[in-house]
Amino acid sequence: xxxxxxxxxxxxxxxxxxxxxxxxxxxxxxxxxxxxxxxxxxxxxxxxxxxxxxxxxxxxxxxxxxxxxxxxxxxxxxxxxxxxxxxxxxxxxxxxxxxxxxxxxxxxxxxxxxxxxxxxxxxxxxxxxxxxxxxxxxxxxxxxxxxxxxxxxxxxxxxxxxxxxxxxxxxxxxxxxxxxxxxxxxxxxxxxxxxxxxxxxxxxxxxxxxxxxxxxxxxxxxxxxxxxxxxxxxxxxxxxxxxxxxxxxxxxxxxxxxxxxxxxxxxxxxxxxxxxxxxxxxxxxxxxxxxxxxx
Length: 295
What we know:
Strand content: 35-45%
Radius of gyration: 23 Å
């Protein structure tokens, strides 16, 4: 439960209880380099990290700002060596109720109300619907003795049921790749973000994985940056490899001015490699340059 989440929640409490306050200024919504204390290299106050990966605080804001059912359960459930110790399990949600289970064992149903509902019209009279909260806060929390397995939260909102699971994973076994654009324009400027996930044999992201991933690119593109969101990683962003952080890292792929395909292979010692292909399509909106001949 880090400082970023605490600050997000505390600021929103103030806004929610003071009608004359229209909002707060998040400095900033995404992490950025600089304004840090050594050995940190970035300001990690954002709801998104440097790579755009979502932090827990992202889901806090989502639980406050949308009407669709939201249920986010954290932290991860890989605590080898801490069997039997109490681990605080939290949920950001806008559900009416949330029930928590660990390996099928019920740990209670909770509901939140903030600010806590007061009496209306007289002593012991309440406006309908009557809310019977277990907390007057903006998150739910359970104390759970750790054992490996599956945490499952079941939320209900307006008659709908949603579930969220956090499970103990196996050891890192493979690399999984995905891109936010599988086709980009061959204009020498367009980019696609390549997300790298370190997964176990069942395809679950291993939240403690920090494997070094090396990228090999062939075709009409180039790697213009790599990252992992780790505020204490001093490695340069201009590189062809990056260690995973919380099981994730990123490479930014840029097109050349020639159309074709970009083939990227990601490898790491002891892990099954992965490949992905990005197409680059002609840019019909730009003039012809002589330099295109020499690309």
